[in-house]
Amino acid sequence: MKAKTLVFAAILSLAPISLYPQIDAGKLKNSLKRHKTIITAQNKAAAQDLAINTTKTTNISDAVMLDNVVMDKFQFLSPRASQQLEGIRAMNLPKSLNQTRDFKATFKSAGGQTLAAFSAYAQAPVRKRSWFLGNFRGVDDASSDFRFTKTGKYYVEYSVKDQVFDRFDFSVEQYNGPGGDRLIANGGWNDLAYINYDPLQRTPQLTFSIYLRNMSEGVGPRLKNEGVYTARIVRVADNKTLGWSNKDKRSRLSPNKWWIRFNLFFFDAEKPERLNPKRLLSQDGKYFVEFEYEGKVYGKYTFGVAQGKFEGLKEFKGEKIGSDGTVIWAQKQK
After folding, report:
1. What is the rounded average pLDDT for all residues in the chain?
2. Which of the chain's termini has less CB crowding within 10 Å, N or C?
3. Do the beta carbons of residue 266 and residue 284 sit within 8 Å?
4. Are residues 316 and 198 in the same domain?
5. 297 and 178, same structural domain?
6. Predicted structure pTM score
7. Best CA proximity match to 105, nearest among 150, 136, 71
8. Short-list 285, 288, 287, 311, CA closest to 299
9. CA-CA distances (angstroms) from residue 54 to 19, 50, 126, 213, 248?
10. What is the CATH number of the domain that holds 250?
11. For residues 326 and 298, is the Cβ–Cβ distance under 8 A?
12. What number of H helices and E strands is found in the chain?
């Protein structure tokens, strides 16, 4: 993998107030003061996040990858069936890892045979709660040139200084059909979705994220590859629908040949405004999101509320699922 570096520079220039006599200097001063207060509060929150996540643990077993970011970034780049890892995230890594290349992602077969390994540059949390892992490089030439050629079960093993703390399981399967023959990856994308909710936001919003794929994308008319959807949030206790996404079915989704995450927003079922998460958090119990695609129920995803907080899936197929506290995992019900 070749490293790519993007550098962004922003220069802010403020002209003297005297050049603009139409501006009320007093109002501008008060506005800048309020803005400074807001920025200061944000910086304090970021500093708290940094303190929590760089000093929380000295035990590597407490570390965990953020699976939603891993699933977003893990793509088969056809036709070579090579994989993309760039820009993944983790929680609770040891402070000593910061600005080193001691993090490693190792691809292995189901039997434990090492296929390829990549090191990454680690950056401690700054504005986000999680560690950033980027600039991946193959540890040797064979790793740099690695691509999948066989179907089967595989996993990625994550380690710091060769101490393994997490893994991501997936399978490689052969697809033959519209859109071309190719190897494809299956795994958590097939069965998992998640609620995203950050109570620290000024106006907390709730979204539902789901992964979709359409292997025939690009074949035939464009509309053939787009699908009408709806989604609703239901409280199990009284089977009451609390919120809708795309209830009027005016919007469409356009899945691609690889897994893509779609984020859905909800509107209150009883009034024309965004669904306030407090409507769910005010009553403990079980809830589910029902997602319908092209007239058929694609899946129902359950989660809970306990003591005014969201509760989601902690493990999937025997492996822990990472979250930064804003992701509530849910599994498709059979």
Report:
1. 83
2. C
3. no
4. yes
5. no
6. 0.80
7. 136
8. 288
9. 47, 6, 10, 36, 46
10. 2.60.40
11. no
12. 5, 23
Residue 159's closest CA among 184, 139, 186, 180? 139
Which tokens go with 25?
A: 């200097």
Burial 174-200 (b: 16+ CB within 10 A, else e): eeeeebeebbbbebbbebbbbbebeee
Which two structure tokens, joined as six digits, stand for 298? 């694609």
Same domain, 323 and 197: yes
From 151, 186, 221, give the residue that closes a domain.
186
Domain that holds residue 205: 192-331
Please report, as a single letter, which amino acid is at residue 50.
L
- Identify any residues that bridge with 267 across adjacent strands, giving them in sequence order: 244, 274
For residue 89, being part of any structural domain is answered with yes
Taking residues 281-292, report their average pLDDT.
97
Tokens of 150: 């066989």
Structural domains of the chain, count = 2
